[in-house]
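input
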Amino acid sequence: MIRVLVCDDQALVRTGFVTILDAQPDVEVVGEAGDGIGAVELGRRLRPDVVVMDIRMPGLDGIEATRRLAGPGVAEPVKTLVVTTFNLDEYVYQALRAGASGFLLKDATPQQLVAGVRTVAGGEALLAPAVTRRLIGRYGSRVRPADPPGAGKIVLAPRELEVLRLIAAGLSNAEIAAALVISAETVKTYVSRILTKLDLRDRVQAVVYAYRNGLTDEAAG
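output
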């Protein structure tokens, strides 16, 4: 079971998310919070697999709540999926810098919400397609305060570099496996090696690294 904490200051929206997620056979909503302070308290106490986090909440906004649960320096980060009405580059950038593993807009379908929770719980990054390339192109160079070790020189094997490019293109492990005609387990191994070699925390940072270092068609263009 994927244990989920739902955080949103609007009771109707929160109830909708809970109803959608609880209806899934592999998802269990273990708590709800109506503000950022409650989100942090419940996140630390319940240790859910995924926190579904709104951005604009009273007391403590979702960005700061995400930072306290998943940001740099957190010993045991909690995976966070930010879901918001606001399709603004700065919000997305701040959410990723705060440690969010995914970002969806509230106009996403119920199926996309469920898929997003499953994706983040599985350790993959998720960005709404409408904002991914625009965001990384504009803010990618600022997501990490310093270049990781080995920046400026190729430290990846050719196959690892190929996998990194496909991650940056937004492909899931299963899609990468199909594209390269290898197993999903092999892809998972490659992803782990890439993150370790480049000293990156997750796939979001891998995408940013690829754009920063001109490893994608979009970055090159």
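quick obs: The first helix runs from residue 11 to 22.
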